[in-house]
Design goal:
The complex is a heterodimer. Chain A is built from 15 helices and 19 strands. By secondary structure, chain A is α/β, with parallel strands linked by helices. Chain A folds into three domains: 158 residues, Aconitase, domain 3; 106 residues, Aconitase, Domain 2 (3-Layer(aba) Sandwich), CATH 3.40.1060.10; 171 residues, Aconitase, domain 3. In chain A, the strands form five sheets. Chain A has a five-stranded parallel beta sheet with strand order 5-4-3-6-7, sandwiched between helices. A five-stranded parallel beta sheet of chain A has the order 17-16-15-18-19. Chain A has a four-stranded parallel beta sheet with strand order 11-10-9-12. In chain A, strand 3, helix 2 and strand 4 form a beta-alpha-beta unit. In chain A, helix 12 crosses helix 14. The longest helix of chain A has 17 residues. The longest helix of chain B has 14 residues. The chains are: A alpha/beta, B alpha/beta.
Chain lengths: 466, 204
């Protein structure tokens, strides 16, 4: 029977099937400091050991400072952040789990590090106590976020109980417009189907536009599947996928590589496979996007105006618009490209890879950020990306333009470290969530692509690339 | 895990769609390495007028009297009413921990985000889906309602509603069963699976 990619990946991992749920085997669990301490504590209290040590890889990312780190973990100013990272280091040492520690050049955001190291492989089942685990689906893996109880469950049993999701295919066709990136595609899709549009589904992104995206672009897109409500976002394996994985430190080699590649080539939806829903979009309809409100679905083209709740017929939606506008201090019908910004953040598991930095640097080169910009941050996704960018001279382009060039981590995406917005500050951010208070209490987040973030930093307001 | 059988309580009406887990428990409280104690910071940015940080004496903070959980008539509510897509965003289990620690035992909404929905069941918290018409009735209803998991029903002063719940999740919740204990009963199955699996996928 013709199967979808999701069906294939699920079927390959079923240990035991019950009436409505299945016990599935987990190939890789990625661990960070925020959602793991209680799981390790549970393991310790019950006197249990990890089922398979090799199935786990840990890296601190949420709390790490992005400023100078020569004093190591001991030098972290916030004592609670410090304790959380120390706890991860201790737990990994006690239980024997492979950890890339804070001062290792390979350290970075867990969803950047996994693929970069070749820990993430096509066909794998991958979990992490983090909703953006969907990122890894870009390599044809079955990857999704879980809560801490499930982190403990995977540590203890190597498995997870899962009910099957429905299959949703999102097809995007045609060539993207100039300065439209994977981030704009993701935001556009969320704007069209809503933040609950993918709830209960595993999304497979397909179509010529997706095929033409680089693997990094596909990661940006799959990363934001959760912002459309879907825990899983995937793209079929193709030659680009295999080329991306080849030669990475943890990728297979020799005969094992050949055998793996043979299997990976089967990781696509079969002709005629059944999808519960198929939604199609045309690439030419997608303009550079910017969010105006407090949910990723509250998004418009950069040439658009802030919506008017009085023109919305659905009363729940109208109320949501009013609440959002009141929080974010914007008036209905304002052209978004006239709105000034205070800060700019280029980074996060959505947009901190080398191609993102190149795109932002290309716009920035030879220019300077506007006088009204109080802070513009570039935070690479990993130490290795930082080094590569420096080798290419991108750091110089950014610092000459007035940006700050930082160490790798989650940083201002969720502001668990020192990088945050002050109340009332407005930020053009390449991250993934514009919820109330996400980047700092009372602050205003507008999600954009790296190129638009850079162009807006230079203009001082939301701006297309000029 | 705490068992869930039946509860009778007034409801707290949080009439808002797309409530995300960042709103349920803001990130600064995620720095805790403990599993308990999140209740006082549930909906922190809506509940208090000042900025909350870990270690503050919450009883001394200025409260937002307009927020539903601070209104006298909703004190002691164990059932939360909300609108579409409750619990969207981050996978943080601190969200159900905070709701449970505050005293909630059930949440009724037209829809929930997948990860949040799943996390609730790991913590003895029952998420119930009802359509918008029923939600409007429940939001308009004053007084105690009873939720009975075994019969999958809600009783609001004689008016009955039913709800769906996965049979296995129901069994685990009714009996307060520990997931890991249950899975480890299948240790032999897992080992047999691995033997075959690593032969087929030898590069893993």
């Amino acid at each position: 029977m013709a199967q979808t990619l999701y069906d294939k990946l699920m079927a390959a991992h079923v240990v035991r099937e019950e009436a409505t749920t299945a016990l599935i085997y987990i190939d890789l669990q990625l661990i960070h400091e925020v959602t793991s301490p209680q799981a390790f504590e549970g393991l310790e209290i019950a006197g249990r050991k990890p089922w398979r040590l090799d199935a786990n890889l840990a890296v601190p990312d949420h709390n790490v400072p992005t400023t100078e780190r020569s004093s190591g973990v001991a030098g972290i100013e916030d004592p609670i952040s410090k304790l959380q990272i120390e706890t991860l280091d201790k737990n990994c040492a006690v239980f024997g789990i492979n950890e890339i520690t804070m001062n290792d050049i390979r350290q970075g955001i867990v969803h950047v590090v996994g693929p970069e190291q070749g820990a993430t492989l096509p066909g794998m089942s991958i979990v992490c106590g983090d909703s953006h685990t969907s990122t890894h689906g870009a390599l044809g893996a079955l990857a999704f976020g879980i809560g801490t109880s499930e982190v403990e469950h995977v540590l203890a049993t190597g498995c997870l109980w899962q009910s099957k999701s429905k299959n949703l295919k999102i097809e995007v066709s045609g060539e993207l417009n100039e300065f439209v990136s994977a981030k704009d595609v993701a935001l556009y899709i969320i704007g069209q189907i809503g933040t609950a549009g993918g709830t209960g589904y595993a999304i497979e992104f397909a179509g010529t536009t997706i095929q033409d995206l680089s693997i990094e672009g596909r990661m940006t897109l799959c990363n934001m599947a959760i912002e459309a409500g879907a825990r899983v976002g995937m793209v079929a394996v193709d030659d680009k996928t295999i080329e991306y994985v080849k030669g990475r430190p943890m990728a297979p080699t020799g005969d094992k590589w050949d055998k793996a590649v043979e299997y990976w080539h089967t990781l696509h939806s079969d002709e005629g496979a059944h999808f519960d829903q198929i939604i199609s979009f045309n690439a030419k309809d997608i303009k550079p996007q910017v969010t105006w409100g407090t949910s990723p679905e509250m998004v418009i083209g950069l040439d658009g105006t802030v919506p008017d709740p009085d023109k919305e017929t659905d009363p729940v939606k109208a109320e949501s618009i009013r609440t959002a506008l009141s929080y974010i201090h914007l008036k209905a019908n304002t052209p978004i490209n006239t709105v000034n910004i205070d800060k700019v953040f280029i980074g996060s598991c959505t947009n901190s890879r080398i191609e993102d930095l190149r795109a932002a640097a290309a716009v920035t080169k030879g220019k300077h950020i506007a006088d009204n910009i109080k802070l513009a941050l570039v935070v690479p996704g990993s130490g290795l990306i930082k080094k590569q960018a420096e080798d290419e001279g991108l750091d110089k382009i950014f610092t000459d333009a007035g940006f700050e060039w930082r160490e790798a981590g989650c940083s201002m995406c969720l502001a668990m470290n020192a990088d945050k917005l002050e109340p009332g500050e407005r930020c053009a951010s390449t991250s993934n969530r514009n919820f109330e208070g996400r980047q700092g209490q009372g602050s205003f987040t507008h999600l954009v692509s790296p190129a638009i973030a850079a162009a807006s930093a230079i203009a001082g307001h939301f701006s297309e690339v000029n | 895990m705490q068992k869930f059988t039946t509860i009778t309580s007034i409801t707290a009406p949080l009439d808002r769609a797309n409530i995300d887990t960042d709103a349920i428990i803001p990130k600064q409280f995620l720095k805790s390495i403990k599993r308990s104690g999140f209740g006082p910071n549930l909906f922190d940015e809506w509940r208090y007028l000042n900025h909350g940080e870990v270690g503050m004496d919450n009883s001394k903070r200025p409260i937002n009297k307009d927020f539903v959980l601070n209104q006298p008539e909703y004190q002691g509510a164990q059932i939360l009413l909300a609108r579409e897509n409750f619990g969207c965003g981050s996978s943080r289990e601190h969200a159900p921990w905070a709701l449970e620690d505050y005293g909630f035992k059930a949440i009724i909404a037209p829809s929930f985000a997948d990860i949040f929905y799943n996390n609730c069941f790991k913590n003895g918290l029952l998420p119930i889906v009802q359509n918008n018409n029923v939600m409007d009735e429940l939001f308009g209803f004053k007084g105690e309602i009873t939720i009975d998991l075994k019969s999958q029903s809600i009783d609001a002063n004689g008016k009955k509603y039913t709800f769906e719940v996965d049979a296995e999740r129901k069994r685990r919740l009714l009996n307060g069963l520990d997931d890991i204990d249950l899975t480890l009963q299948y240790t032999d199955d897992i080992k047999a699976f691995e033997k075959n699996y690593f032969k087929t996928y030898s590069w893993l």
